[in-house]
Write a structure and sequence with these properties.
493 residues, Cobalt-precorrin-4 Transmethylase, domain 1, Methyltransferase, Cobalt-precorrin-4 Transmethylase, Domain 2, Rossmann fold, 4 domains, five-stranded parallel sheet, five-stranded mixed sheet, 17 helices, binds S-adenosyl-L-homocysteine
Length: 493
């Protein structure tokens, strides 16, 4: 097969704005060259088999000169590889995509262009500024601000006569010159201006003003790059339409300590509310050292199976299927479970639990069992480490109780350096608490959020007070509790 180069726009930052075409090609790529403005979440999608090079200026990484980049793309494609060139925004909007495509054409290398969502459009959209609007702007002009102080380039006179919207990319360093040139050419100093920094990311900030005031306002706000400038009456709509920066948890940095395998739902909920999620998995789920006790729970007939976690359910069914059995083996067995999410994972496997206590703790099961449990056989499916009160009490009442060790939680080596400026740390089990505090993080001022009473107890054992506790043991309830508490604190001065 002959190689091919795909010049791909990776969008403005929010990984959700990657196109399906781009995602599909990244997944198939052999060689990926990544620009500075492409977000890490997108770079992380590179398959393990692909060679990845960073060719843009990034902290501590040097930029490759443009001619070297072009040669690299050509060489790799000629080896027969699928070469993906990822650029911020759209490759043809101030992205040098045109030059690269010309070089590829000259070298006789096959290529395709995959448009991306440009920051020039997505930035204003995420700042609640429609670039055109029937009452305010009938045209949109994209301008490079890079050449603002050069004598060549921009036709300021012409620009000043357009009554529409002007978006400047690469103009942040020249903001003062841009404002000065426009006013010198007859634009009113009162024309609204917005500067949008780190658009479409959880760190997005928008500063507004007029041609006369914007420079001072931006200096006060100490905005970081990348940033774009938008000039025009449409900027006035920012106050009304500002939907992104007003999300309930916008700007909050929230730590998720769950095992990576299980963190996706909680991560998604927080991100949809505008938070930055720092994944800090303190534990990993591993198979048990021996399957003997789990096998016994599957092969022998019990009167009750008790599930205390989603992990226990997953491990049980994985083993059940591995033994070429299925839910029919559970016929006639009563099923108890702790926690609504555990119940959901049972139901998704075609099993409706007979018993779910109100509280997310195994001790909450106790009152639901008879005082006399002679001849009753109960298997508890859980990790080796866990609370034994329920088991002890059942045995006291005469039951035969079997502990089926379905999985282990093993601690993950942690790098606490990633934890800075944290607003909330979330804990979804006692073991995440123990492992987290074993790494001795400094958390000055962060709120501690727990999924339920057992997890809160674990926090108290470490001398910490849970600031937030979910009303029921579910990921949604934990998210909602964090939301409610941060709002409450935001309201009280
Ligand atoms: N091809 C890119 C633009 C490359 S030029 C696109 O279509 O978006 C680089 C300039 O784009 C930066 O100087 C800045 O003005 C702007 N830019 C890119 N990403 C941005 C972001 N997330 N927020 C604000 N400006 C951004």
């Amino acid at each position: 097969m002959t190689g091919r180069v795909f010049l791909i726009g990776a969008g403005p930052g929010d990984p959700g704005l990657l196109t399906m075409r781009a995602a599909g090609l990244i997944a198939r790529a052999d060689f990926i060259a990544i620009d500075a403005l492409v977000s890490d979440a997108i770079a992380d999608r590179a398959p393990k088999t692909a060679e990845v090079v960073y060719v843009g200026k990034r902290a501590s990484k040097h930029a490759l000169p443009q001619d070297k980049i072009n040669q690299l793309l050509i060489d790799e494609a000629k080896k027969g590889k699928i070469v993906v060139r990822l650029k911020g925004g759209d490759p043809f909007v101030f992205g040098r995509g045109g030059e690269e495509a010309e070089e590829l054409a000259a070298a006789g290398v096959a290529f395709e262009i995959v448009p991306g969502i440009s920051s020039a459009l997505a930035g204003p959209a995420y700042a609640g500024i429609p670039v055109t609007h029937r009452s305010h702007a009938t045209s949109l002009t994209l301008v490079t601000g890079h050449e603002a102080d050069a004598s060549t380039g921009i036709k300021w006179e012409g620009l000043a006569q357009l009554d529409g919207t002007i978006v400047f990319l690469m103009g942040f360093a020249n903001l003062a010159t841009i404002a000065e040139r426009l006013t010198a050419n007859g634009v009113s100093p009162d024309r609204p201006v917005a500067v949008i920094s780190k658009a479409t990311t959880p760190e997005q900030r928008t500063v507004t003003g007029t041609l006369a005031t914007i420079e001072g306002n931006v200096a006060k706000a100490n905005l970081p790059t990348p940033a774009l400038i938008i000039v025009g009456e449409v900027v006035k709509l920012h106050d009304v339409i500002n939907w992104f920066e007003s999300k309930p948890l916008f700007g909050k940095r929230i730590v998720v300590t769950r095992a990576r395998e299980q963190a996706s739902e909680l991560k998604r909920l927080f991100e949809e509310s505008g938070a930055t999620v720092i994944q800090f998995p303190t534990i990993e789920i591993a198979p048990p050292e021996s399957f003997d006790s789990l096998d016994a729970a599957i092969d022998k007939h019990f009167d009750w199976l008790v599930f205390t976690s989603v992990n226990g359910v997953s491990a049980f069914f994985e083993r059940l299927f591995a033994k070429r059995k299925d839910v029919r083996s559970l016929a006639g067995i009563r099923i108890a479970c702790v926690g609504e999410t555990t119940a959901v994972s049972l139901r998704s496997r075609g099993v409706a639990p007979d018993l779910i206590p109100d509280k997310f703790m195994s001790t909450a099961l106790i009152p639901h069992f008879d005082a006399d449990l002679q001849k009753i056989r109960i298997a508890v499916i859980r990790a080796a480490e866990g609370r034994d009160e329920f088991i002890d009490e059942m045995r006291k009442r005469g039951a035969e109780v079997h502990l089926a060790v379905a999985y282990r939680t093993v601690p993950v080596a942690l790098n606490a350096d990633e934890l800075h400026d944290i607003d909330v740390v979330t804990f979804t089990s006692a073991s995440t608490v123990d492992n987290f505090f074993a790494s001795a993080p400094s958390l000055d001022g962060a709120l501690l959020a727990s999924i339920g009473p057992t997890t809160s107890d674990a926090l108290r054992k470490h001398g910490r007070r849970p600031d937030i506790e979910a009303s029921i043991a579910s990921i949604q309830a934990l998210h909602d509790a964090v939301h409610a508490e941060t709002r409450r604190r935001g309201e009280t001065p």
